[in-house]
TrEMBL record:
GO terms for cellular component: nucleus. Its EC number is 3.1.3.16. GO terms for molecular function: RNA polymerase II CTD heptapeptide repeat phosphatase activity. It catalyses: O-phospho-L-seryl-[protein] + H2O = L-seryl-[protein] + phosphate; O-phospho-L-threonyl-[protein] + H2O = L-threonyl-[protein] + phosphate. Pfam families: Ssu72 (PF04722). The keyword Zinc does not apply. It comes from the Eukaryota. This is RNA polymerase II subunit A C-terminal domain phosphatase SSU72. InterPro entries: RNA_pol_II_suA (IPR006811). GO terms for biological process: mRNA 3'-end processing.
Amino acid sequence: RTRKTANATVAGKARRFFVSRGGSAMKFRYAMVCSSNQNRSMEAHNLLKRQGLDVASYGTGSHVKLPGPSMREPNVYDFGTPYKQMFDELRRKDPELYKRNGILQMLKRNLSVKLAPQRWQDNAGDGVFDVVMTFEEKVFDSVLEDLNNREQSLMKTILVMNLEVKDNHEEAAIGGRLALELCQEIEGNESWEDTIDDIVAGFEKQHRRKLVYSISFY
């Protein structure tokens, strides 16, 4: 399922270049987005960052939720709460539980990447992105809805892609690697507008995973 908007290709756009630690210029800015900016988006953020890509990550939920003692008792935090604070609180509450379910290890990874979870809908001050990768259809829809509600004054295209990934540690690791591969493929092209159909078709054929994408504007 591919969603496109009219007039998707804009020629001759000025690029914002990011210089990686290796000294090479990165063409595009990437955003990894899931619901709580904890597992899937942070796994991908970590991998892309380690490969020198210009990447940020976000969640689209109203709050950050982490598994608790039962399905009815999640740990709920506000966006902006430092990962270190969550780590310390959960380690104090029940170190065995949160070590066993991988939450402490995940938070330790997260706090090595950035300070705290960020909310996509509050990121207008972070500048523009070229490519957004989501890992759940409702997150994909939330990103598109938010972009459509913003004032589209720049007429700069933004590619929003969804790769469906279950919200567990094992699937997040697989999804992160696939997101990295996909973004590296995009990064290797001068203009994703001209090559995205071929990139998606090649990815789906190789990995037998469905990609949905839409083109929106800033």
